[in-house]
User: Fold this.
Amino acid sequence: MRRRLVHGAVNESAIHVDVALVGGGVASLWLACLARNRGLSVVVIAPEPLGGEQTMASQGIIHGGAKYSLHGRAKKAAPDHLAAMPSRWRRCLAGNAVGGSGDIDLSGVGVLAEHVELRACTRRAQLRKRAALRLLAGAPNTPVQSGGTRLPDFVVDVDGLIARLVRGIEGCVLPAKVDPEKVRLGDKGVAGIDLAATTVTAERYVFAAGAGNADLAPRLGFGADATMLRALHQAWAVVEHSPPTFAHCLVRAFGTEPDVTVTTHDGGNKTILYLGGHLATTGVARSADDQVAAAKRTLASALPHVDLGSTQFGALHVARAEPRRSAASRVDDAFLATCGNALLCFPVKLSLAPRLGDLFLREVAGLKPVVPTRSDAPSGRSAPQGTRVAARTVVQQGQGAPLELARRPWA
Ligand SMILES: Cc1cc2nc3c(=O)[nH]c(=O)nc-3n(C[C@H](O)[C@H](O)[C@H](O)COP(=O)(O)OP(=O)(O)OC[C@H]3O[C@@H](n4cnc5c(N)ncnc54)[C@H](O)[C@@H]3O)c2cc1C
Assistant:
């Protein structure tokens, strides 16, 4: 799970910054870039390889909730902030991020597909598709040659996104996993984070550690049941040739989610069809072999043109980490909760990263940038008493230690 190196890890014995962020996925990296854009000093604490677990396993679909029309309640399930995500991301990608909002300039980050389709792949799924489109009336959707209908959703290049975000925080990364017991508590909430060779203190502490938040949240005072995991069993097919497919595919006559959501990725001289949707949510209890068998059956119906004879398959168990909610409700918004100076964050969806950014900026609005301090004392339990150094020494230059970025599941 390793890929190319970038440079710029922090190497100090004690660090004081405006914002310390725990986690190396899209949430932490996005918020770190936003904070830096505001002139705040940051440090990101995350184990290598950097890039996140869910983030690297995600399908990269920037969606506005259109697929929830399959629930038969599109309007309720796609509130305005979610529906706005595709256009907000397109603005970011075009370099037109709105200042003061949770947007980030993502110019240079690639798009794998300009649109995701809703496809009825069997005759019996036609009615289901038509019912979903009726709910989307008014939203832009265009019939295309494949027989599908284009939704406003598109697919971002997740590798490129992570590389861009990591570049935005060069010199601000401490490659380490935070032990909840080493989060020191004080009057304001968190008093510091002790790592093997460094003590980090900050004005605000952001915990955006995905599944890792489950262990951290109780320590921070958020309660033992603040978080939950939703298991998935993704699959992928390595095919010789396939036209690029980015589609929510409907195979059955009924169902509240796409039978399989297909995205297409570069696999060197092969093509990767990455498979989520109902196949992944209902495949959790299956063994890898059984999940591969289920993937073959589903693909045979959804994409009958794909030659499955020589196709290799793979499968991956991964969980979505989210704030706890009742079984009946669906989380449609990014989540940020505070406890003293600690912020517990979940984007809930990759798409909602700008929305999480909005919530974060509100929390740090009153924070005045301070000059980070550095101490040469060995890391210890006391707050750093270090000499004041120019922000760029700690925050931007680092010591040039290489960082490793995570790979996609099939790579
Ligand atoms: C299979 C799958 C497909 C998805 N597809 C989509 C999609 O198409 N579109 C969409 O909008 N959303 C999608 N999502 C949801 C989206 O991927 C997640 O909401 C988002 O990536 C979460 O990002 P994150 O940074 O919070 O978590 P992660 O990406 O999981 O990152 C967590 C980070 O925290 C680090 N960490 C953990 N514990 C500690 C610790 N103690 N100390 C320091 N660091 C720690 C980890 O190493 C990791 O770097 C998908 C999710 C999954 C699982």
